[in-house]
Amino acid sequence: MIRRNFFVVAGISLLLLSSCNTVKYKSLEKIGIHKRDILVGNVEDARDAQKEAQEQFKDALERFGSVVQIEETGLKKAYDRLSDEYDDSKDAAEAVSDEIDDVEEVARDLFIEWEKEIEEYTDPNLRNNSKRQLGDTKSRYNEMLKSMQAAERSMEPVLKTFRDNVLFLKHNLNAQAVGSLKNTFANLEGDIDNLIEQMNRSIERSNQFIAEMKPS
C-alpha cells in the first residue's frame, strides 16, 4: 500500500469536515500543516508510487518471461498467474496517476494563494523578491510535473500489450497461444524498459524538487 505521510494522516479527520479547500487548508494550518508541506508530501507519495510501479512491472515481466517458456502442460495455471500480475500492474499504474493528481491539486492551490498574497506586500522590494521566488518555484515544479506525466503516459502501452496477451491466453489456452506470445515478448520487454527509464527520470526530478522545497 502506498505510504502516506504523517501529516496527511494527522489531518485526515479535518479534511473530512469540509469539502471547501479554503476551510480545509486553514484547518490544517492551525495545526502547523501548510500547503507547501502537503505539496512536498504529495510529491514524495507520487515518487514512491512510481518506485512501487517499477518493481511491479519488473515482476510482471519476469513472470511473463516464464509463462512464454511453458509448454502445453499447466497452461491454465500459467494464465491465472499472469492475469494476477496484470491486475497488480494496473493497480500500481492507477496509484501513480492518483498521486500525480494529488500533487497537481495542492500545487495549484498553493500557487493561487501565493499570487494573491504577493499583492498584500507594502514593500515593493519584498514583493518583487517574492514574485521572482514564485516564478522560480513554478519553473522547477513544471519541469518535475512534465517528467511525472511522461512516466505516467509510458505506462499505457505496457498495460495495453499486457492486457492483450492476457486475453489471448484466456481465449486460447493451448500451445499455439504460448508460441504466439513469444513473438511479442521482446516488444513488451522493450516497453517496460522504456517505462522504467521514464520513471527513473521522474523520480530524480521529484527528489530534486523535494530537496529544494524542504528547509535546510
In which range does the helix fraction lie?
over 70%
Largest beta-sheet characterization: none
Question: Per DSSP, what share of the residues sits in E-state strands of 2 or more residues?
Answer: under 5%
Q: Helical element count?
A: 6
Roughly how many Å is the radius of gyration? Answer: 22 Å
Structure summarized in a few sentences:
It contains six helices and no strands. With 216 residues, it is mostly helical. It is elongated.
Describe the structure.
The chain is mostly helical and 216 residues long. It has one domain. The chain has helices at residues 6-15, 21-30, 35-67, 75-118, 124-171, 175-213. The protein starts with 5 loop residues before the first helix and ends with a helix. The relative contact order is 0.14.
SSE blueprint:
Elements (H helix, E strand, L loop, with lengths): L5 H10 L5 H10 L4 H33 L7 H44 L5 H48 L3 H39 L3
Main attributes of the structure:
216 residues; mainly alpha; 6 helices; 85% helix; 0% strand
